[in-house]
Amino acid sequence: MLVLLLPFVGWAQDIRNSESYANGQMLYEDFCMLCHMANGKGVPKAFPPLANSDYLKDIKATVNSIKYGLNGPIVVNGIKYNRVMAPMGLDDQEVADVTNYILNTWGNRHNQRITKQMVEKLTKKE
Phi first, then psi: what are they for 87, rounded to 5°? Predict the structure, then answer.
């Protein structure tokens, strides 16, 4: 079991030591922390948690909500939220950076680095 976890542990350390993660942390502190809090737990029934959030499993929805904001109901960890999250005006690289930070902080672990190119593809309007 330990052998299977070693590559995953290496990835988590790698992303948390990356420039993208550091930039994402600064962006989170500037744009997201007011509502989602420093600990990523949000405000119960007002602003959803990012820490251990099941919503983050949908990478396309996560990236789009960061890039374009949200308007309308969502369910996070079984709790319904219906507030407006305004778009922050971040460019695709900034969206990638803050997504990498959120996906690898507060107990969240994601096994793929989000890139600017991925954001461009995931947020392409049909």
Answer: -65, 145
**74 in any annotated domain:** yes
Tell me the residue range of the domain where 49 lies.
12-122
Give the model's confidence band at 20: pLDDT under 50 very low, under 70 low, under 90 confident, else very high. Answer: very high
pTM comes to 0.87
pLDDT > 50? residue 65? yes
Average pLDDT over the chain, rounded to an integer: 90
- Give me the mean pLDDT over the 8-25 stretch: 77
pLDDT on residue 13: 57
- CB count in 10 Å sphere of residue 119: 23
- For residue 1, being part of any structural domain is answered with no
Please report whether residue 28 resides in a domain.
yes
The answer to whether 36 and 49 have CB atoms below 8 angstroms apart is: yes
* Burial of residue 31 (number of CB atoms within 10 Å: 0-12, 13-18, 19+): middle
The alpha carbons of the chain give a radius of gyration, in whole angstroms, of 14
Domain membership flag for residue 98: yes
Total domains in the chain come to 1
Reference 58, options 10, 116, 23, 110; nearest CA is 110
